[in-house]
Every structure is written in structure tokens, then in C-alpha cells.
Amino acid sequence: MLGSLYALIAVGYTMVYGIIELINFAFGELFMFGAFISIAMMVDSMAIFGQQVNLPGLHFLLAVPISMAVVAGMGVAIDRVAYRPLRNAPRLAALISAIGMSILLQNVAQAMFGSSQVFFPDIGLFTGDNGLPKYITVSNAQITYLQIFVVAVTVLAMLILNFFVQRTRIGRAMRAAAQDKSTSALMGVNVNRVIAITFIIGSAMGALAGGMYGAIYHFAKPDMGFIPGLKAFIAAVLGGIGNIPGAFLGGITLGVIESLGSAYISSSYRDAFAFVILILLLVFKPSGLLGSHISEKA
Asked: 162 to each of 58, 61, 178, 250, 254, how far by Cα in Å?
């Protein structure tokens, strides 16, 4: 389940990097906004900018898609404001812009929702309120229906996304732009439109992860995206950055290793496992599990 959440955020990293070779560190904050907007759609009222605002009180299954649409729009706006003007600038400039955007979004979230944790409402469909059991038992393990839901949604999202990229016209344009933006533009591909669609998809996946993360852990707060975003980046590198199946594999692998390490070694080192994996990967297989080395012509 944890690996599924990492995989959804890692997709955002890997898609954007595959086309514009930018590590968008603001994806962690888009993940955070996904959780907050999901909460806002699920409650009847909420304090926003210090004022109590009446809200629709929708079901979780309606709130999360709305959150994905809003955050997708935020992703496009971020690209337009912070990244598009730096397309031809040195990579360091775009990286600094991404870090600045991450800090800005954290501060906007603090201004909107406050700096303390906000409780994520319970979901009757998964908490046993409808008379159904909350979990199933496999051997000695209790697996909740919400955890099963998270994994199932992630697998479905990855299958749909892989089909979209491999089989549709826009997907072919995305792959062409990832290979060579200049030549793609000469062949009639609207590169800026392709990049905008990439940000839409990646941001929506991050918001989906944020909504499900909030449902699992029952909270949202402005700085909640930093560690999951960093681990999702490690998952993207682990799978082979720029590779969508690799992002899924890297996320699942990282989540499983982190959970098993916490259970059998120590939960105190839970966050350290991800960075140990990153160091070992960069030493022994820097291209990632499904990545490949690209030769440069002289």
C-alpha cells in the first residue's frame, strides 16, 4: 500500500523528467494539496484563510476526483509561471525555481489551512459503518479494505496511463518529445501542449496519492508532502527515471523494503532505508531497475 502511494507520486517525477529533464520538487506539495482539497470537499465547513467557509460535504469517491482536477490545474499553472520561461535556461535555474515553488506552495497551504494538522474524515465505505467488516485476515495479517482499495486504484491508474502513453496519439507525441523536442516540433508536435498535458497527468496522480494517503493516515498538514515527495523521487530513480513502469516498480519496491525494514529491524530507521537504497543504487546501478544507458554521439 505504501509503495503504491510512492508510485503515484513517482509517476509525476518520471513523466516530467522524461520530457523536459526537470526534477519538479513541487510535486510533494501538489500531493499535500490533494489531501487538503479532498478534505475540503468532504466536510460541511472548514477554516480557510482564517474564515469559516461552508463546503459541499461530498463522498470520498467524489471528493478525490475533484481534488485531482484542481491540482492538475495547479500543475499547469506552475509550469506556465515557474518552468516555461526557463525552458532554454541552464538546468540549475529550473531546479532552483522548482525548490522555490515548493517552499511557496507550503507557505500558501499554511496561510489557507493553518500550520497544524487537519483531521481527514472517516470513510464509511471502509470503516465498517455500513455493517461490513473493516478488514480481512490473511494468516496473521489484518488487511483493511482501504489498503486493498489503494493498491487496486494504483494498479488501475498505472495500466490506464501506460495504455495512454503507448497507444494514443497524444501519448506518441509525448514519447516523441521525450526523444527530441526540437525535431518533434519540426514534425508538427506542439511541445508546450504536450508538456502541459504531462503536468496535468503527473499532478493528478500526485493529488490521487494525497487523497488516499490522507484517508489512510487520517490527517493533512502543510509540510506532509516533503518526505513522501522525496521518497517518491528515490522510487523514480530506483525504477529508472523517465520510465513509467519503472516508477511503479520502484515505488512498490521501496514501500515493501521500508515496511519490512521497519518491522524486522527498527521503525526508528524507517526513513533511512530509502536513502540507503538510493546510495547503493547510484553506486551499483545508476540507471535504475528498468532504466537504460543512453549513448551520446560525439
From this structure: 30, 23, 15, 15, 21
Domain of residue 45: give its range: 2-284
* 188 is a domain residue: yes
Residue type, 187: M
Domain presence at residue 7: yes
- Confidence category of residue 269, pLDDT binned at 50, 70, 90: confident
Between 145-167 and 2-20, two packed helices, what is the crossing angle to 10 degrees?
A: 20
**Is the overall model pTM greater than 0.70, yes or no?**
yes
Burial of 41: CB neighbours in 10 Å, binned 0-12, 13-18, 19+: buried
Q: How confident is the model at residue 22 (pLDDT cuts 50, 70, 90)?
A: confident
| % pLDDT > 70, the chain | 95
Do residues 233 and 13 touch, judged by C-beta distance below 8 A? yes
